[in-house]
Amino acid sequence: MKPLEIADKIKEKFQDEVLDVKEFREQVAVTLKKDRILEICRYLHDDAALCFDYLIDVCGVDYAGKKEKRFEVVYHLYSIKRCHAIRLKAEVPETNSEIDSVTVLWAGANWHERECYDMFGIIFKGNQDLRRVLMPEDWEGHPLRKDYPVKGPEKEWPGFQAVLDRAKRFKEFEWHG
Question: pTM here?
């Protein structure tokens, strides 16, 4: 099925949820309201004609000051069985930066949702393991937000010295072949 046909099926079933459909170089992005994202993804996953059985990626985007809703969560879906793809974008406001988790459909979403939470501070409701994945647990802030300080926090991260000490210990095991 062609991507625009998939977008039409989404518009037919969830007409009040679709905000925009854009095509560029034979790739289609469907922008959605966030409130029914799990239901929409379940439809795309379970419908026999669509069969989106593979979640390629979930990522975040920060449009600080450029859009009414500051964040977007972007889903790249693929059907191995049907050999077609679609991109979903769900708008997420800064004041209530929550969206439903899709881990019940694709277990691999866990890592991507954790990364998005870690880097942007977007909360995925229903994710049973929503904790930092790239930054240390005690890190303050979300580094991919547009308002994050370019030089990092003004104070030194408390775990920094421990990392340096560990690096020194591992240096003795380097191979110089």
Answer: 0.84
> Which domains, from first to last, does the chain contain?
3-134 (3.30.460.80)
pLDDT digit string (tens) for 134-169?
999 888 899 999 998 876 556 666 777 777 787 777
pLDDT tens-digit series, residues 66-110? 999 999 999 999 999 999 999 999 999 999 999 999 999 999 999
The tokens for 69 are 């809703």
Within 8 A by CB and 6+ apart from 98, the residues are 92, 122, 123, 124, 125
Pick left, alpha or beta for residue 143 (phi over 0 → left; psi -120 to 50 → alpha; otherwise beta): alpha
Residue 96: phi, psi to the nearest 5?
-135, 70
In angstroms, rounded to a whole number, what is the distance separating the alpha carbons of residues 72 and 155?
30
Eight-state DSSP code of residue 69: S
Two structure tokens written together for 52: 């989106």
Q: Which helix (H) or strand (E) holds 167?
A: helix 160-171
Report the alpha-carbon distance of residue 142 to residue 156 in Å, rounded.
16
* CA–CA distance, 170 with 177 (Å, rounded to integer): 16
